[in-house]
Structures are given as C-alpha cells and as structure tokens.
Design a protein that fits this description.
InterPro entries: DUF1285, DUF1285_beta_roll_sf, DUF1285_C, DUF1285_N. The protein is built from 3 helices and 15 strands. The protein is mainly β and 180 residues long.
C-alpha cells in the first residue's frame, strides 16, 4: 500500500455511522499485510494492533466477498487481508426477557457491535479442525462471521434445553441447536 495503514486510517477518520459498503465496488488495490488471528487479534506487519478504536474502524470497512476473501474497502480502494478463522469474536451476551417464549439473546462483539441471535443473525455450531471442541459461529452482515468465545458459549449452553437428542436455545422466536 502506497501510504500504509496510517493513510487508510486518515482516509476513514470523521465518518459517522456505518459506511455504505454495499455501494463500494472499487478494483483490487492489492494485498495488505493484516491478519485477523483465530484468537481475534488484528496483526499488521507482524505487530498486533493494540488501539481498539483503529480495530473498530477497520472492522467497519471489512467485507467478505463471493470469492471467500476478506477486503478492507473505501470508495476508491480495496485491500485484501487474511482471516484465520472468523473476522470477529463474540465476547459477551445478555438476555432480554429471559425465560419467556419471546426471549432474545443479544451478543456483543470485540468491536462493541451488538447482534440479536435470530433469523437475521443465526448461529451454527460445527467442530474445530481437531474435532474435539465445538466451534460456535454467528453469521453477520457483509458475509462476515464471529466466533463465540469459550466463556460466552458456556453461558449460552447453560440456557440450553435438551430435546430430540440435542441441546437447543431459542432467541427471537428461532431455535438453534448447540451441539455439532
């Protein structure tokens, strides 16, 4: 990248609200040495990005495209980055109207975005590559996904009801199976 990470940051500063990524379709500018690690860390040129506002800013312009690749976008630039597992991590949850038929489970991501588990943001649970532990993943906007961290998944599992040989939770009128 010609000016690097700082130029991209300056280009994005001052934006209010979520950028209209669905309107941006620039040509590929190249590859940027950013990796989103499986543990949720964002790493640029081998160094972790420690400034949460910067991570939040970049997450706001991240999109996964039909080719399965991840891109940071501006109206005039498109930079491919690497994602080891999921783009974001779910770090907290709370329950709205707990125990009721219409309860909603709301998740909070590592970039402080909130998502209500339901038809729009469904949860799937598969197995990790080793097959030893579950991999709970929430589908998000822009074809992105967020892995539930272990503590959140355990809290979610505590809400599960056993039936039909599996464990299920219900949120926003939709039932989700928690076992892979």
């Amino acid at each position: 990248m010609a000016g690097g990470l700082n130029d991209l940051e300056q280009h994005l500063q001052g934006q209010s609200g979520k950028p209209p990524l669905h309107l941006w379709h620039p040509e590929l500018s190249g590859d940027m040495d950013i990796v989103i690690k499986a543990n949720g860390d964002w790493v640029h040129e081998g160094t972790a990005i420690k400034r949460k506002p910067l991570v939040k800013l970049f997450a706001s312009i991240l999109r996964r495209e039909e080719d399965g690749e991840y891109y940071l976008l501006t109206p005039v630039e498109k930079w491919r980055i690497q994602v080891e597992q999921t783009a974001l991590t779910i770090v907290d949850m709370d329950i709205i109207e707990p125990g009721r038929v219409d309860q909603k489970i709301r998740f909070t991501s590592n970039v402080d975005e909130q998502y209500t588990l339901g038809k729009k943001y469904p949860l799937t649970v598969s197995s990790t590559d080793s097959g030893r532990e579950p991999l709970p993943v929430l589908a998000l906007d822009q074809q992105l996904t967020a892995k539930l961290n272990r503590a959140v998944f355990y809290r979610l599992a505590d809400l599960a009801v056993e039936k039909e040989g599996g464990f299920y939770v219900t949120s926003d009128g939709v039932e989700f199976k928690l076992d892979a």
